Amino acid sequence: MAPIDPLRKVERLKKTAGTKQSGAAQAGRIPPGQHITKKFPVLTYGETPVIDKSEFRLNVWGLVENPLELTWDELMALPKRSITTDIHCVTTWSMLDTRWTGIPFQAILEKARPLPEAKAVMQHGYGGYTTNLLLKDMLDDDVLLAYEFGEKPLAIEHGGPLRMLVPKLYFWKSTKWLNGLEFIAEDAPGFWERNGYHMHGDPWTEERFG
Fold first, then answer.
1. Do the beta carbons of residue 68 and residue 58 sit within 8 Å?
2. Which partner from 3, 100, 167, 172 sits 20 to 30 angstroms from 81, CA to CA?
3. DSSP for 28-92?
4. Gyration radius (Cα) of the chain, Å
5. Spatial CA neighbour of 92 closest among 181, 187, 206, 198
6. Vertex 150, ends 146 and 155: CA angle to 5°?
7. Could you tell me which CATH number the domain at 52-201 has?
8. What residue spans define the domains of the chain?
9. pLDDT for 84-96, tens place per residue?
10. pLDDT value at position 43?
């Protein structure tokens, strides 16, 4: 099946976003326009890469004192954290109480030591995907380089062996098949941002489109 054209996908989402709501929204856990799903949807633009852990590398570069190239074993030697959190997709689904384990982003910061002029991070994934975040949005304790979901190794269709997890933002901001973190001086658009998505992506204010 051919990949969905990104501009057509944005237009379709614009027509449907904000029309679904769950009773759980009254409890303050479901952002506007979202509905609950119990099954983790698989949404991928393009092909799904297959990454051998023996060949895996996480590169950290740009405005840092100490650029890194970490093997899988070196990454697994870093501190780990498990969290339970809600996640929200721009395509209007939300999952509650999802369980993740990964490397805290703070552990990468401590090793790479960003320079003062670093204001944003461009995430890179195997296959060429990119998305941007302001560095200040990545400093919370729940931001992980995640390798387990539901206490099992992260499935390839959900970004395994490693994906970014930034639960307070729409899930396109949590790059699947993560292999790079580029520290940059100014916020710059990634793949979906260049194709009409919002530069920030806050579910609570419905920052779906730019």
1. yes
2. 172
3. T-S-TT-EE-SS-----SS------TTT-EEEEEESBSS-EEEEHHHHHTS--EEEEEEEE-TTS
4. 17
5. 206
6. 60
7. 3.90.420.10
8. 52-201
9. 999 999 999 999 9
10. 76
